[in-house]
User: Fold this.
Amino acid sequence: MSSIKTDLFQSRGQTQQPLAERMRPDALDHVAGQTHLLRPESPLYQALSDGALHSFLLWGPPGCGKTTLARLAAARADAEFFAISAVLSGVKEIRAAVEHAQQVSHTGRRMVLFVDEVHRFNKSQQDAFLPHIENGTIVFVGATTENPAFSLNDALLSRLRVYVLKPLDRDAMLQMIDRAIQNSTQAVSFDQALRETLCNAADGDGRRLLNWLELAMDLGRSSEGVVIDATVLEQAIGSSLRRFDKGGDFFYDQISALHKSIRGSDPDASLYWFCRMLDGGADPQYLARRLVRMASEDIGNADPRALEVALNAAASFERLGSPEGELALAQAVIYLAVAAKSNAVYSAYNQMRAYVASRGSDEVPLHLRNAVSGLAKQQGHGAEYDYPHDHPFGYSPNVQYLPDRLTDIPSYTPTDRGLEKQIRSRLNFLKSLDDQ
Assistant:
């Protein structure tokens, strides 16, 4: 952050700008975090340092410095900075921005067009930028919190360099707190432990951090100075949610982590990701449905009770609601994590679906058809059907249950884990009866 001569914590009656805006860095060396992009040898740092503008996309979570880097890029190249938001803009605003850029170019300067939340634009709106990026009318800088591989069309993406920003780490956020407090004209009492608490609550979001700090300063202000104690900080933060977008990358990353932790038989990690998603506002019923899926996909017949536990947990949540029902879901999470694992059913199902889709409609063998009428009996329906219960072990050896000509059909292959070990033994025994 740059050195600022005026008091950053002047009351809102004196300024309309929030602290996060007043603290925006005006030099690369003052940017907190993103050290992986701002090392002297990195391409982005060199481009910004030299004022060599190129169109690029900044992909990262909220409050990590995307707008700041875009502004610095324009400032370092002595270019005009023009910002639009895809949330509030359409093709009309895009055209107006391009017309302004054409006017700026007549003065010998270039214009950086910063498009915030660019993923909100549809395909035709994104296409509107293409010719103006190509001919150099604008230097396009986009910012997005969504995976650009899914949210931006290929034509626009191919014209941009993509830089991935990370959430601000603890050191970067503590640095922001220190610099903000140093520019207060009043003495500030804010001990290190509470600063750590604020950093944890901000969860990598610098804007959120500074907004809460500003509110805490207002709440703790008196004629003697500013005291931010535990009570003041709790009032400022209120009930905060961790980073969780209920449908974007964070959502799918976390449900993926939960699924893989259960599959990997780690109950602690499984419970952690389950609680992280609840803490972030995930729908517990969605999590219950995913647990039922995991019980079949990753456990299957190695422990059929897993599916029963998952279904009972889902039913318990429906009856009890939140928060009481969440304990039943947590019980299911831990049971699924420690259960014997097998994807044999999942693999057999997928292979058989693909096999069936690749073939025509093979006929049901006559001996398996239902003889519901005299005509059906005359045609041989049900003839020579061998009733398994008439045989020892309840099994009729060497009976064909598949359509004719199916010789390459996939097969269910149980593992040697959990109950499937017994199932495998049973199938091997029945095969021995066929061989006899």
Observations:
- Residues 170-237 form a domain with the Helicase, Ruva Protein; domain 3 fold (CATH 1.10.8.60).
- The CA atoms of residues 234 and 323 lie 22 Å apart.
